Amino acid sequence: MRILSLQSGTSADGIDVAVAEIEALDASATPALSLRPLLARTVDWSEELQPRLLAAIAGESLTPAEFCELDTRAGQEFAAAARAAAAEIPGGVDLAVSHGQTLYHWVDGGRARGTLQIGEASWIAEALDRPVLSNVRSADIAAGGDGAPLMGLFDRAWLAGEAEASGSPIATVNLGGIANVQIVSPGGGLVAFDSGPANCLIDAVVARATEGRQTRDTDGALAEAGRVDEAVLAALLAHPYFVATPPKSTGRETFDLGVVDRAVASAGSGAGSVNGSGPELPLADLVATLTALTARTVADAVRSATPTAPNRVVVSGGGVHNPAMLRALTAVLGLHGIAVTTSDAWGVDPDDKESLLFALIGFLSWHGVPAALPATPAGRARVLGQLTLTPGATLGRRLDGIAGLRLADTRLAGTLAEATIA
């Protein structure tokens, strides 16, 4: 079946759209799957909507009327992006999956209590005349899980066979706004959790310092020009999240500008920010320090999450386009003999991997397959998402699980995971 996926990350820098063809390779109740990407692109949010989304993500209060309008407008822009992409696929698509735009991920007492994504799915269903799966995290949270990170579902299906063949765990890291770490062990074992910030704090300090003229450290230029402030880095590393035991999840609501300002202030770096609204530290030094924070916390997570540390890490997400971040991560992991490659060396575009994950979730849910995440209590795996159905829609045949994932035209073509996901 042809599945269209839609999502916008915590940076709200655009709508990622992808279409993938996913098919069962045999008629068993636990088939291996093939996945072939057909289309992938990023569509800009409108100039009117993007700043409103960013303000809401940052915690700006919304009245019920404002929230209703924001949810509707986001759904309409998701729908327009979906309609344009589906028109390019001969025969159209069979199903859409919309992760939506996260506004808040509620964690209290070390547990996820709720999550909020917006972008009303009915507009997408209306635009495509196809069913839409949305709200993909909440069922797992209601069952006692964290609802995040979801990437482990893709990585276990994709890499368990390779881990088995090599006899060694394989780690993957997605560097979005938040960094998440997945470690797939021989036999299909999975550890997956958010390690902390990747780009979100860097983006936030750059946007504040430039009054919104820049929203990221393009090409890592600021980090390269700066010097790591070891006292500030130590203060940042003292955040309690980093010593919390996995599985765990987090978001911008935990790692915001206040975290940065308090760390700079406690390190004695003065008062008054680079633009007069927070602690003072040259912007390049602050970005270099936050880049080092990401590298250190990701590396610590990779090394400590399993009894046997992996000897290779596969990196994806927007952070792969930041050479300073990749160099910092490679340097720290290299001290421990752990090699770093990007997912394109394994046949998966780093910008598209998360979109392919949501397409896979769509296939699993359409066929009634529960998704067991590491934080999900034993025996409580749930089918993810809520369906907005259209006239004539019929669910696919029920499967008990899948035996692996073959990516078309990649280096791993022909390698299948042995572990059943159920």
Automatic annotation (TrEMBL):
In terms of InterPro entries, this protein maps to: Anhydro_N_Ac-Mur_kinase (IPR005338), ATPase_NBD (IPR043129)
- Which UniProt keywords are listed? Kinase, Transferase
Alphabetically, which GO biological process terms does the record hold? amino sugar metabolic process; peptidoglycan turnover
* Single GO MF annotation: phosphotransferase activity, alcohol group as acceptor
Q: Write down the superkingdom of origin.
A: Bacteria
State the PANTHER family in the record: ANHYDRO-N-ACETYLMURAMIC ACID KINASE (PTHR30605:SF0)
The identity of this protein, by name, is Anhydro-N-acetylmuramic acid kinase
Q: Please state the gene responsible for encoding this protein.
A: anmK
